[in-house]
Amino acid sequence: MDNSKRVTVYFDSDVHKALRLRAAASDRSVSDIVNDAVRVSLAEDASDLEAFSARQNEKSISFESFVSGLKRRGQL
Predict the structure, then answer these.
(1) How far apart are CA 67 and CA 76, in angstroms?
(2) DSSP symbol at 59
(3) Count of C-beta atoms within a 10 Å radius of residue 10
(4) Nearest-angstrom CA–CA distance, 58 and 15
(5) pLDDT truncated to tens, each residue of the chain (76 aa)?
(6) CA distance 65 to 58
(7) Please, are residues 53 and 39 in contact by the beta-carbon 8 Å criterion?
(8) SS3 of 10, please?
(9) CA distance 3 to 22
(10) Is-above-0.90 flag for pTM?
(11) Is 35 buried (19+), middle (13-18) or exposed (0-12) by CB count in 10 A?
């Protein structure tokens, strides 16, 4: 943990209790569990950003136009 930074994070009491119980049951620290959860969330964000980037050149359509098209084709 030589590259670690210390921060203060406030959890709801029930979330904190759940984290402490999970940490004790898995023989890990709360910090390890929180770090893993944040990494998973950041990986999901990175995946979303890649998907957005891949679709940035697609033609967009407004919600109103899409619904009007559904109605015009008898699908609504």
Answers:
(1) 8
(2) P
(3) 6
(4) 41
(5) 578 999 999 999 999 999 999 999 999 999 999 999 999 999 999 999 999 888 889 889 999 999 999 999 999 9
(6) 16
(7) no
(8) coil
(9) 24
(10) no
(11) middle
